[in-house]
Specification:
Elements: H1 2-7, E1 12-16, E2 33-35, E3 37-39, H2 40-49, H3 59-65, E4 69-73, E5 82-85, E6 93-109, H4 119-130, E7 137-139, E8 143-148, H5 158-168, E9 172-187, H6 193-196, E10 208-213, E11 219-225, H7 226-240, E12 250-253, H8 254-257
Parallel strand pairs: 1-4, 3-5
Antiparallel strand pairs: 2-12, 4-5, 6-8, 6-9, 7-8, 9-11, 10-11
Helix pairs in contact: 2-3, 4-5
Length: about 280
């Protein structure tokens, strides 16, 4: 991506073992559908929230230079994959349901936080000093909760133990290990909250440790027990994403793309191979 930007390339193609970005992990849920086109920022959000095809930082140079990025499947080169470019459609849409596992949830509680200026700066200072990245953040009048999925040396390492010691000077610290972040990713999520209502019933009788909505209105995330994450992703995906059919935003599903009889599928971008003719 850096070379493409510096050279002023017309396009950047990433050839991999899947056809592009999908509405969820296609190897776990074969009915996941190909995302035909998305913006740099939406694709970056998908990558950061769990999609494995792209590294989140590869889109920065491409976006800076205005270079379209196309993901293609090396083993299926005739199929058009996902195109990532400047946003062409600003309408609200749910685009994917993804998850990130091996997440640690940490909460610091103290009544001294209420009405105190600069308290959050004191909370986050040890994270910076110890090189521990914070992902989701939620605050109340007397508590701050954060999630972490990249801790140097893990939860048993010295940096994490030092973090707990430093935060204990500010308040009561509680930690929950073995959680996962399940995220509904799209654009203008707040405008379609009324459509999400019925789908949120999947969380009935499942513990939700934290709910977070991104400031850019690109995702709605739930921190849950890791043992519940895979099933929640499957249930949310089935309720929020359209099944196979004609659609401007979504292409064929993974199972249709990989079926030996896919030539019968009337999909643009799926040319009939000459030997099938």
């Amino acid at each position: 991506a850096l070379f493409a930007a510096l050279l002023g390339a017309e396009s950047l193609e990433i050839w991999t073992d899947v056809h592009g970005l999908f509405t969820t992990d296609p190897r776990q849920i074969p009915r996941a559908r190909l995302i035909r086109r998305t913006s740099y920022r939406e694709a970056q959000e998908l990558a950061a929230m769990g999609a494995k095809v792209l590294h989140p930082r590869c889109l920065g140079p491409a976006a800076w230079a205005g270079i379209p990025v196309e993901i293609r499947n090396t083993l299926d080169p005739d199929v058009r994959g996902t195109v990532i470019a400047q946003a062409a459609d600003s309408g609200p849409a749910v685009m994917a349901v993804v998850k990130r596992g091996n997440v640690t949830l940490l909460t610091i509680s103290t009544l001294e936080m209420w009405g105190t200026s600069g308290f959050l700066a004191r909370v986050f200072a040890p994270f910076e000093a110890l090189g521990i990245s914070v992902d989701l953040v939620a605050t109340s009048q007397s508590a701050v909760t954060v999630t972490m999925d990249r801790i140097p040396d893990g939860i048993d390492g010295e940096p994490f133990h030092q973090l707990l010691e430093e935060l204990a000077k500010l308040g009561t610290v509680s930690v929950v290990h073995g959680t996962a972040v399940v995220s509904i990713v799209g654009r203008r999520i707040r405008t379609v909250l009324h459509k999400l209502g019925a789908s949120l019933s999947v969380f009935r009788e499942r513990q939700v440790h934290l709910v977070s909505e991104s400031s850019e209105d690109l995702n709605l995330s739930f921190v849950v027990d890791e043992s519940d994450a895979a099933k929640l992703v499957a249930e949310l995906h089935d309720q929020l994403l359209p099944p196979q059919g004609a659609d401007a935003l979504f292409g064929p599903s993974w199972e249709l793309l990989t079926t030996p009889h896919r030539a019968a599928i009337e999909e643009p971008g799926l040319p009939l191979r000459w030997w099938r003719s």
